[in-house]
Design goal:
346 residues, alpha/beta, Rossmann fold, Dihydrodipicolinate Reductase, domain 2, seven-stranded mixed β-sheet, 10 helices, binds NADP nicotinamide-adenine-dinucleotide phosphate
Length: 346
Amino acid sequence: MKNKIKVSVVGGTGYTGVELLRLLSQHPYVEIHHITSRGDEGKLVADIYPSMRGIISNQFINPDKADLKNSDLVFFATPNGIAMNYAKNLLSEGVKIIDLAADFRIKDVAVWEKWYGMAHTSKDLLGEAVYGLPEINREKIKKARLVANPGCYPTAIQLGLLPLIKNNLINKNNIIADAKSGISGAGKKLEPSFLMAEASESFKAYGIEGHRHLPEMEENLSACANGERVKLTFVPHLLPMVRGIHATLYVDATEEFDLSALYENFYSKEPFVDIMPESTCPDTKSVRASNICRIAPHKEIGTSRIIILSVIDNLMKGAAGQAVQNMNIMMGFEEVAGLVLGPITP
Ligand SMILES: NC(=O)c1ccc[n+]([C@@H]2O[C@H](COP(=O)([O-])OP(=O)(O)OC[C@H]3O[C@@H](n4cnc5c(N)ncnc54)[C@H](OP(=O)(O)O)[C@@H]3O)[C@@H](O)[C@H]2O)c1
């Protein structure tokens, strides 16, 4: 029997925060230490999230009053630009960090500062931060003190492309990632475009001129292509549903190969990637509230075009589930601990 570790969540009132609480509250090797909120400081978690009644008895505490340095690991489920201000002090106290935001996802600081519109306050930690996509970085994550949890779109899209990129089988200058996300991807904020009357029964693209997940994907996929530049056309869309991401990826093959066998072999040992049978189309509901990414590779008849369909739950494999998977790897727990959850259907 393992000793439980003390884990804190900074940003416990957000959607990824409460998803972390759902997972951590039933994790066999975790004791929840602090859960922070500035706006709801002093309130019971269960008063803000009745789903946590009888499950979590903590009150929200202001992050500046929380004794984070006595946690073993801290999750930052906060907006961009927060974790970078805490990281140095916590790491120096021996606390491990998983940031669900983008502070440590991009190695090139000039690129990060351009896309995120602020100065990076922990540039010296960018080198050691590990990009937390276990399917490519498991060995590095095992030794990491600081993990940058990937973005939600980048998880669905990169898992869909990796077998082709890693095996140098496609034109890397001509990849189209057409992706759609449920509205919880935007977090718990009051904005007119996210009101039910605006977003329901409607469907639209956004961020065509450039989305922050683009440089994250291009940097990481280029590293996976031995430094050869990978160029994506990425068009995100907002879907009138709460959870889920569906990515449709269009690429051109540069040679003939067995597409299904490639994907099945590449992901054969991965606990959270499911390669679908030929000619199938996964739906977002098939992964809802689970940490699974389902991928269906397709070949267009008579051309070199390959179409990959990849679905995840943005709050799970796209955020909190993947963060717990990374914690399990960092702490030497079974990788699936606390994550063996069947999808919710209907
Ligand atoms: N939603 C998704 O599907 C998704 C997927 C992947 C990654 N992410 C990333 O994960 C992070 C959290 O996303 P979310 O959707 O959960 O956001 P959210 O719903 O907007 O919640 C943000 C949380 O951060 C806290 N917070 C805000 N400013 C803070 C500050 N200056 N210091 C400390 N805490 C602060 C908020 O509580 P108080 O203001 O009360 O302190 C709140 O609990 C974001 O960086 C997001 O990009 C989100």
